[in-house]
């Protein structure tokens, strides 16, 4: 698109967002447009621009040069907007059906103009309300199978992959994960946030050497293992869905990381939702976990067999080894995610919304037991069925 | 140094090399200089510039835009000269005593002007002649302990490390290792080079699924595991030495790779030399291997305890785990190196110089057995003493 890019960053307003939409010729000249800022204002501005005439709309997402969390504000690179749009474009090469279409990007303004998904619902909100999203796990499994295979060394050209690794080096956003997922919740750090009733449980965790040793290994893996392009923040709040569509958004944390990372975070968030549900409503979540793994491993295996470029993709036993390692790592990453979403800085509404309070505390205790069990069961837990058993044992 | 950099690459001659030395004021105006090109002409030009008056000299190394191997010529990035000089400068931050001093670099000309080490000997040549280099393993252990610790996530600032990872992304040179160390020798590829008498042994190797599975895992580790800045080609031909000095040269393959990689290649080359020696002369090589590991692990451990920045460096058991993994990986990488130096494209004089021919073939057969045994013993071989036993078992 040949639009002159602006030379200086400045935050858009609802008026300049409409102007930009017109300038990009994304609506016809005559259409009257309405614009609403719908972001939560912590990290990004999100403008929803709609035509008053037609039903058409679009989203303009603009990164803010700071993050506002717990009242404080710290500087945060605008480059994350470029990472996000490049990740969406890269994902779209393999699975365009599972990401919003990108219409335009501007590095200086740190904006991505993209498909309006407001007819869909954020899956975390839906799951909390009891939506089942029958195709969610099928789609996430296909997304992960395709993206992880095609961006890995099993498929990608060695030199092209290294250039891509370079372009997705993402120090600022990775640092957030390194601190908030892998470090702070396991030490007595200021960023942690938990109810006083959990203090004893949390202190026990901080003294649990076996658990910390596993987290240390996973943190090192996260920091050093550039296996494939990962979304980096694939929780249920990063997924729009309805009963037949799934769209993955917000890959500003994308980088080349461990093959099991996204899978672990997604599974953890399904588990957190399961814990928040009544016993009899949990089966749909367990089924989603099993289906995600089944579809992912089938998709990945089929691509490996048909399109594996590395010579060793033909070596007997190698695919099984890789899949086992992905599963094992995913279980470990899920353990970290379950714990950090319970006592770390960024909570999930699944747990925080549980009423009454006593039940919320009891469920968070179970979440801590589950996180610990996941971290200590990485090598023994061999299937989604065993994972389901493990959850039940922590009740 | 404020010297105007040249805008276009062109190969130096002995005359322009002298001119450059004068221009850089590395000799006094009046000194008469002599220059000899001493490179092997395959990858680089190497000019040795000396003063006729004093004993002083320097080395000008210039990358050629192609590689000449087995009569063929293929293009090879000039950027490797920048990688090499940046690696030397990075190493010098921690262990200046073990690398040549860099006086000047020019990215366009792809040159590094550095300390003259011609009073030392390439350690491969010396070891073949029976030199013992009593401090070689002490020095290499210290070099590896310092460089690997300080450039790893256990010490380095997370963001600074990622910027460094980016600047050392080295697709062309890594590709050479991926092909010549981890792939070609394990398949029937054109680049392989071995005596007809070894054909049966080699074909057996190509069909050895257990071995190939281990090499596949190590190749994936090499391609994806950016743990620390590694030299990338630390064989005995990349080390100048005498009885009290050790200098590591030629880090043009440097990149952020697995902690055990350099150690594995160095150990492998000591093992190859051991195989080429009479039984009674091998102890000095075994002692070097044991000492390298001892000094490396002590150095790394002391730095970890005193200067570990990552919170988990205080977690009980983590250091032991990391050291065990480095050792295990090093054994695996050593297995690949022993095999590729026996049947791959780039041989070592240690084996190729063995006379008579029958003995050479017998030793190469042992090298293949040893390489295989190393690859299959990664998890069971727990010390240098056990490694020595393993070598003896392959006799």
Automatic annotation (TrEMBL), chains A, B:
Record flagged with keyword Nucleotide-binding: yes
E.C. no: 2.7.1.100
A GO term for molecular function: ATP binding
Keywords assigned by UniProt, alphabetized: Amino-acid biosynthesis, ATP-binding, Kinase, Methionine biosynthesis, Nucleotide-binding, Transferase
Residue stretches making up the Aminoglycoside phosphotransferase domain: 34-268
Family, as annotated: Belongs to the methylthioribose kinase family.
Function: Catalyzes the phosphorylation of methylthioribose into methylthioribose-1-phosphate.
Protein name: Methylthioribose kinase
Organism the protein comes from: Priestia koreensis
